[in-house]
Amino acid sequence: MRNHHIDLCGQIDFTRTDAMPLLARDAHFSFACNGCGDCCRGREDIVLSGFDLWRIAARLRLPPLIVARGFCRASIGTVSHLPVLRLAPVKENRNNCPFLTGNHCAIHDAEPLVCALYPLAQEISREGEVSYFLQPTACGGRVIEAKVEDYLSRYDVPAREQTDVRWALGCMELEDVVEQAEMLLSPVLVRRMQAKLWQALYFNYDYAQLFLPQLERNLDWLNGEIIKLTEYQKKQNNKSK
Ligand code: SF4
Ligand code: SF4
């Protein structure tokens, strides 16, 4: 069983190694940074959760689908089989993140968790335990030292942990359900299921309403829809016997 990772690698199937031990909240860590801003350029790996997208949508006062169409790249995870939404670098503008203006993040108060954590990364276990670890970086410059809990608090990461855990647990449960369903469903019905996954995880949200109750409602709806699709497929299979 894999844990859920949010990290700068943006790899949903990322595996943490012994070289990246989990850090206690009161542990200290250090990293080097010369403030060049390159971590906001040429990035194909800034993965957004549904909560990240909702926060950006609320910041821009636009529906999540419009934000995704305007600023993101969508795919289906090869390992997770779930929707993956990433910020899309702007080719015409030195491959900058679409929200980079000069050396400033235009959505700073709603920036994605991946950005808020850097260079820390987050791991959520199947039991819902949240941990952090330091990613290896190739940056040089002034050495910055910080205590983990202070570093997380500077962008209010602890305040969003409960939502991130619910999102991660929901995704981990869905991975198993979707993988099972895909073994049964025809390609057409797999695509229909994927469209429902996008709606439930990313798009069917009102930015003026709290995120978590909408997530719970959407996950309930999605589970019902996947059951309907698999039952329909079973009936079709029985008819053709
Ligand atoms: S973390 Fe690295 S890439 Fe980002 S601003 Fe600092 S030196 Fe530049
Ligand atoms: S969202 Fe903001 S912090 Fe994150 S990569 Fe884009 S400009 Fe940088």
TrEMBL record:
- A single Pfam family it belongs to is CxxCxxCC
Domain of life where this protein originates: Bacteria
InterPro entries given in the database record: Puta_zinc/iron-chelating_dom
**Protein name as catalogued:** YkgJ family cysteine cluster protein
Q: What is the lineage of its organism?
A: Bacteria, Bacillati, Bacillota, Clostridia, Eubacteriales
